Amino acid sequence: MRSQLLRSSFGCLLTVFGPFPASCINKAVRQTAAAVPHSYYPRKTMHYQTEQRGHPNSPDYRIYFKTSDGKYISPFHDIPLIAESEQNDDVPAKKPKSENKVLYNMVVEVPRWSNAKMEIATKEPLNPIKQDVKKGKLRYVANIFPHKGYIWNYGALPQTWEDPNHKDKETDCCGDNDPIDVCDIGTQVCSPGQVIQVKVLGILAMIDEGEMDWKVIAINANDEDAEKLNCIEDVRKSRPGHLEATVEWFRKYKVPDGKPENQFGFNGEFKDKDFAVEIIKSTHEHWRALVQKQTNAGGIEW
Fold first, then answer.
1. Domain coverage including residue 280
2. What gap in Å lies between CA 182 and CA 178, rounded to an integer?
3. How many CB atoms neighbour CB 151 within 10 A?
4. Does any domain span residue 155?
5. What is the pTM of this model?
6. How do residues 27-71 score in pLDDT, each as one tens digit?
7. In sequence order, which ranges of 142-269 are alpha helices (DSSP H)?
8. Is 300 domain-assigned?
């Protein structure tokens, strides 16, 4: 059975918009994953720990996720979108009354200043983090002068999905079949597989080869600057040039690989926190439809 971490006493999956039934994980899948030779590196992140298999910078490298009691979980489907306060026995706390005070869980895929293109493997059982491979070669992002690698901690919001069957009314583009991406602009450098609580500040509408690829701008709630950054304008005022650098990075990072520059909705302007929260809600609803098998899964695994 899947971990009870996300279940109410009635066996329902707890989400930001209430509980709903969720199917059990295939026991054979978990047994197969457990049988693979591996090295074990416990790294606690809230109620979660990670298990690394294979060697970094190799095609077989994987980072699996487990609960504090050792049960395998999916970082895509089993970690809740809303970050709950810690309580005993992995029992979620109540949500904040105000949406402005809501913190979200972010699964870190790529640490700041690193180049390996790590991502949640949405089409593998248990959805471990792996390094992306294209045409048999491991993928790395180029350094976009004057920056080294990714300029933020980069990752995804769990329990969200940019539905390739849904066309965004603002940009006329369909989703990219992945969880929604997040850029943590905090000062701390995180680790792959780390689960952090973030405060959402705004969002950027990137269009990647015709697909909608939203980029949420957020800050680690434990960062020294978290209290003074509450919206996208705060970022603009306190960190001059950072938002412009973010747009330019996303515009050009595929050019060294022979790809065209990425495009943006809203003329590359960042939308505010309220807009970002609505997009997150929408992708969470699309994820709910996905796990309830109400839409084409597009090869997504559990």
1. 4-291
2. 12
3. 20
4. yes
5. 0.83
6. 333 333 333 333 333 344 458 999 999 999 999 999 999 999 999
7. 232-238, 242-252
8. no
